[in-house]
Amino acid sequence: MSESTIQSRTAEQTGERTADEQFDHDETEVCPECGGDLVTDSERGETVCSECGLVVEEDEIDPGPEWRAFDSAEKDKKSRVGAPTTNMMHDKGLSTNIGWQNKDAYGNSLSSRQREKMQRLRTWNERFRTRDSKERNLKQALGEIDRMASALGLPENVRETASVIYRRALDEDLLPGRSIEGVATASLYAAARQAGNPRSLDEIERVSRIDRMELTRTYRYVVRELNLEVKPADPESYVPRFVSDLDLSEEVSRQARELIESARKEGVLSGKSPVGIAAAAIYAAALLSNERITQGEVSEVANISEVTIRNRYKELLEAKSAGSQQVA
């Protein structure tokens, strides 16, 4: 066969293939009835002709997400492409983690040799996740914050804030001369107060690995050096938790808040422990609501003495009566 014959046949095949591809392209881009332009309706999953309205395709697959987002923050939060970043992990959750289950992708158990290999991989993976002493410090502290927050029942936003406070303290070299547990505990205490979900020093001390003196000293140092804006704890913020622990009614909670507000107007709260005020208000409100409760029960939940409750609840009742006389 001559070279010219081969070239002519190749040209004919190329021309046929090009014509077929052009036909397919034209068929998908224009309406087969009137030759008008096709428009894709993503809401109905249809491809229709803009001229005659012929539905060319229907039940198309939507490759986009099934959720809607109205701003960038909501979009990042709903996106499932990778885990979200978080300040509660030393690497912000960007590293990998090898699971502890000794099973393969099909759920079958690994052999003894494979289990040993996976254990070695886990060990080296943990070593590579922390590059230097600063990251090891941060990993230990954030684990401590998470442990204490779980024991205290604090929400995720408090843990996130505490992690940010500790990171700031680490960046500004506030750790030398102080323990990791001390700065972590102080960060959690400050974060809880900033979020309006405070815990008393006694509660914090009970779950921490440091004593009360070191906690208060480190807390004052961290707040001063980082210029944290921490308002004095409001007694009302303790009321819902104590009422729930004592299994009292909503009426007691309302009465307690009214007693605290009356005492605030009369200037009784100044210099008093907010936990003691909240406990005394709940005890007084229970008496006013005819619900049986003892000072010992309130004392056990609030972790304060019964003497404090007796002194404070009388002051609260006097403040309320004084306020009522002024209104009359």
UniProtKB/TrEMBL annotation:
Sequence repeat locations: 143-226, 237-318
Database matches in CDD domains: CYCLIN_TFIIB_archaea_like_rpt1, CYCLIN_TFIIB_archaea_like_rpt2
Compositionally skewed regions (Polar residues) per UniProt: 1-13, 84-96
Residue span of region Disordered: 1-44, 63-96
Keyword Zinc assigned: yes
Gene Ontology cellular component terms for the protein in this record: transcription preinitiation complex
Basic and acidic residues: compositionally biased ranges: 68-79
UniProt-annotated binding residues for Zn(2+): 31, 34, 49, 52
Pfam families: TFIIB (PF00382), Zn_Ribbon_TF (PF08271)
Keyword Cell cycle carried by entry: no
InterPro entries according to UniProt: Cyclin-like_dom, Cyclin-like_sf, TFIIB, TFIIB_arc, TFIIB_CS, TFIIB_cyclin, Znf_TFIIB
Biological processes, Gene Ontology terms: transcription preinitiation complex assembly
Residues of the TFIIB-type domain: 27-57
Function as written in the Swiss-Prot or TrEMBL entry: Stabilizes TBP binding to an archaeal box-A promoter. Also responsible for recruiting RNA polymerase II to the pre-initiation complex (DNA-TBP-TFIIB).
PANTHER family (alphabetical): TRANSCRIPTION INITIATION FACTOR IIB (PTHR11618:SF13), TRANSCRIPTION INITIATION FACTOR IIB-RELATED (PTHR11618)
NCBIfam families per record: PRK00423.1
HAMAP family named in the record: TF2B_arch (MF_00383)
Family assignment from sequence similarity: Belongs to the TFIIB family.
Protein name: Transcription initiation factor IIB
Record organism: Halorhabdus tiamatea SARL4B
